[in-house]
Each structure stands twice: as structure tokens, then as C-alpha cells.
Amino acid sequence: MRWSNVIADAARQLDVAGIPSPGVDARELAEAVAGHPLPVDVAGDKQLAEFEGMLERRLDRQPLQLITGHMYFRYLDLPATPGVFITRPETEWMTQDAVDVARRLPAGSIVLDACTGSGAIALSIATEVPHLRVIGVDISPVAIDAAHRAIQATERAQARQIPIDMRIGDVLSSSSSVLDDIEGKVQLLVANPPYIPELDRGKNMQPELAWDPPAALWGGSEDGLAFPRALIGRARTLLAPKGMLIMEHDERQAMDLRRAASEAGFSSVSTGDDLAGRPRWLRAQWDGDR
To answer: How far are the Cα atoms of 12, 36, 40, 132, 151 from residue 45, in angstroms, in the given order?
Structure first.
């Protein structure tokens, strides 16, 4: 059977199942099995059997990234790891803002990716703005292990070393020693923290979210603001004077987090919008009055 027919049939099944991007998903599954882009040749029996198994997993609403083993983020092809948050397209827009800020920093400036997860944000900044000192921190050893594998995969793909300092620890804890050496020295703190409101549990959530670690999703309160607000407070001790905080959030949280940042002593507080015009990340400057 030709791959074009296999892909078309799979896309119809995915569409009936309510998968948001059936054609794209069907093609990516086929490419993962065939081992090359846009397969136009004939699929063998072994390939068809493998494809059917992967298709069943996608119909069961397992994330496409975990099925193919690949997670695409900006210019990177990263390994997708079970138990680690899967990156979303909206985070790429926030990361672009962070990259733009990073490009204006002097060489050797410290960039901290809090709640680094897979390390996608840290890797994007380190590869696109290579003159900086990039640090990632996450409380999950599974996430940090995945981030190290992502760094290694990117180093192989780009045939160069990418120095990123990955650390296991609680970014919110000032009593932890994991970030003692950079207290008050960070020029850019970027984060995609847990922020989904607890009130959203079970309310028309995408089934794929069940495969993400809960600690990376839920913001710790009914409105989801507990963790983001705590991170704003922690940023006051981590950032250098004139350092920038860029933090992803739910589109419903923009006003509350701008207010929280202003009340915490940040200036130049604003909100960044994603491609759809939704308010999706906080941008704020720390002026240094602790």
C-alpha cells in the first residue's frame, strides 16, 4: 500500500476521533515509521504493522511527541520523554521574547530557566545566543535527566558543545543552596511554571494533558496563581538590578500577574501576546530595591 493512501486513511480516523490536526499527525507518524520526510514509496508489511500500533496510541490520545519520540521546539529536534512536560507552540512565542532580551545582554550574562523541564527554553537561548551563561533548574530529577539528554542530542545534531548548567532543586526555596552562587546576579529569568487553575480540573481539558506530570501543570491554587506569584517573589532575590523576568501564564491571569509584579517592586511591567493575540506571558524589569 502506498504511504499516501495510508496517511489519508489515518487522517480520516484521527479526524473522526477529534484530533485537532489529523493530517499533520498522520504524516508525522508515517515519517517516523518510514524514517524520512513525506514518504511516497510503498509501505511494507512490517512498517504497516508498526504504523497501526502508533496510530492506535494516537487515537487513544497519547501525545504525538511521546509516540514518535521527537519534540520540535523552535529550531530544535528534542527527544520526548515520558514523565516530562511536552512543549507547546505558545511557549515558542514567549521564548522568542526571551531570546530578543538575551541578545541585548553583555557576554557572560547569566540567564536562568526556572522550571526547565525538558530544557527546551534553556537550549533555545544557549544555541541562539551562545555568548551567555545559561542555567536550568527543576525540582524533578526525571526532568533534569531528560534535559541532559536533550543537550546531548542537540550537541550531536550541531556538532558542537553547548554549555548549559542543569541543576536539581526547588527554585522557590531561598533556603536551598542550589542557586546561592547566582543570587542577585541573574540578568534574565525565564520560566514556564505550573499555572493551570485547579478549577479547570476535568473541565474540557485536552486528554493529552493526562500524560504530562501534574507538578508541571497545576498552579497550586484555585486560580492557578499561587506558584506564579511565588516565583515573582523569588525573582526579586535572584535578579540583578535591571534584570528581566519573562514568565508564561494562562491567558486569564495577565492582569493579576501584572499587578503582582508591580506590587513586588518591578517596573516596565507588560504582557506578551501569542500568535492568536492571547495574553500569555508576563514581562517585568527588576529595578534592584530589595
So the answer is: 21, 17, 16, 50, 35
- Main-chain dihedrals φ then ψ at residue 63, nearest 5 degrees: -60, 140
Q: What is the pLDDT of residues 43-69, one digit of tens each?
A: 888 999 999 999 999 999 999 999 999
Residue 165 φ then ψ, to 5°: -95, 105
CA distances from residue 233 to 15, 107, 229, 261 in whole angstroms, order as listed = 44, 27, 6, 8
Q: Whole-prediction pTM value?
A: 0.93
By C-alpha distance, which of 197, 261, 190 is closest to 229? Answer: 261
Q: What is the pLDDT of residues 162-200, one digit of tens each?
A: 999 999 999 998 877 899 999 999 999 999 999 999 998
Q: In degrees rounded to 5, what are phi and psi of residue 183?
A: -55, 125
R_g over Cα of the chain = 20
Could you tell me if 269 and 284 are in contact, meaning their C-beta atoms sit under 8 angstroms apart?
Answer: yes
Cβ contact 72:79 at 8 Å: no
Q: How far apart are CA 191 and CA 82, in angstroms?
A: 21
CB–CB of 80/86 below 8 Å? yes
Rounded to 5°, the CA angle 184-250-257 comes to 45
Q: Where are the extended beta strands (E) located within the chain?
A: 70-73, 76-79, 110-114, 133-138, 164-168, 186-191, 239-248, 266-273, 279-286
**Which strands, in side-by-side order, build the sheet including 239-248?**
164-168, 133-138, 110-114, 186-191, 239-248, 279-286, 266-273
Q: How many angstroms separate the CA atoms of 136 and 209, rounded?
A: 23
